[in-house]
Structure formats: C-alpha cells, structure tokens
Amino acid sequence: MTVLYEDNHIIIVNKTASEIVQGDKTGDTPLSEIVKQYLKEKYAKPGNVFIGVTHRLDRPVSGLVVFAKTSKALSRLNEMFKGSEVKKTYWAVVKERPPKDEDELVHYLVRNEKQNKSYAYDTERPGSKKAVLHYRLIGRSQYYYLLEVDLKTGRHHQIRCQLAKMGCPIKGDLKYGFPRSNPDGSISLHARRIRFIHPVSKQLIDVEAPLPPGNLWNGFEFLTTDLPQ
Fold first, then answer.
1. DSSP 8-state secondary structure symbol assigned to residue 176
2. Which of 117, 100, 116, 118 lies closest to 108, judged by CA?
3. Residue 66 CB partners (closer than 8 Å, separation 6+)
4. Is the pTM of this model over 0.85?
5. Which positions ≥6 away from 72 have C-beta within 8 Å?
6. Which end of the chain is more exposed for a tag (fewer CB within 10 A), N or C?
7. DSSP one-letter code for 136
8. Per-residue pLDDT tens for 151-167?
9. How far apart (Å, rounded) are the C-alpha atoms in residues 98 and 158?
C-alpha cells in the first residue's frame, strides 16, 4: 500500500494485488485496517481511527482505492459512487486483440453467489443487471495488448466478465477463462486513474496510480495512431 493523496476527509492509496480492501473469511488483515494503523501512527491518535470503505477492488486487482476519513465524506462518497459521479479508468492486459480497437460493451450480468462469479448475456435475464463499459486499445507488446477501460456502471467482476465475453479474458484470470495464472496470483488489471469532485471542498480530485513493477506493464509500446489491421 502506498498513499497517493490525503486530506482531512479522504485518503487514496495504491493497493497491491494481494491486499484485500475489507475483511473476509480468509482472516487476512484488510487494507482498511492497514490504513487505520497508518493514520493512527502518523497522527499519534489515541483510541479508534475512523475509516470508511467507499468502494472495493477485487483482491487480485491492483490500483486506486478511496477511503473516507470522516462520516460526512463517507456518506457523500457513497452517494457519488452510486450515482456514477466517480470516474474510474482501468488498464487491462489481454492476450487476444479485441474485435475493434475501441468500443462500448453493453451486457446484462447475472451474479452467481456460490461461485463468486458473474455471467454476461447480450439480452436481459431474470435477476440481471445492465453493465456498460468503454474500452480502447492503447498499447501492445510482443505477446499482449493493453486496453484502457472506462467503467460506466459498477457491477460485480464487471470488467473481468465483459472482456472475457468479448473473447479477451484478462491475463492471469483463470476464473474468466485465461489459461494460466500469474505467478503472484494477481490478474493483470490495474485501477489506473480516479476523478471526482471532492465531497467537501468541491475541488476536482484527479489521481493516477503508478503501474505495478515488472516487465509486463513496462514492456508496452503505446499507440498514438490507428493500428494496421
């Protein structure tokens, strides 16, 4: 965990792929507790420190997570996330080139709680939720393609599920059809940038997370013109 932005009301951190945002059945220390401890030590606070979870990132995903430091910021951020007022941009590494270099994907996702997995359909199904994202191809390396994804809705495993449905499962994502896992158990999906109007100061907050270390993320040639077909 690295702190990328902090003020009196919010703190934004760059999570590693192994960290969990909130406690779960593994019993591993969640990021929310790590951030609490960080604040407690930094400000030598006696007693409990308030930290509010405003959204989640799947455990194998790296990148930006926003926490609230006050209950006022938490309630406002919760409303902003619900109302799609927080703009989130992800980078995803895929093996297969997408059918189009840029497109909007619209699917209807059905979540299977037992499997902790979502299934994407082209038409509405009972219990389905509409999922919308926009992607564009921004880089390529010898073996992989780099997609930039803007989320329009926030559904369970949305990017993982929709890209797999398109025929481009994310590198390392066994659950959604990639043939091999990544050595560290991560999937190659990174919450790269987050933009929103600060819930209290009303200033624009625009934070970008550095890329995970390693040759994979740093080996891309970025595309500035249309790719040859």
1. G
2. 118
3. 10, 11, 12, 54, 55, 77, 86, 194
4. yes
5. 9, 199, 200
6. C
7. E
8. 999 899 999 999 999 99
9. 17
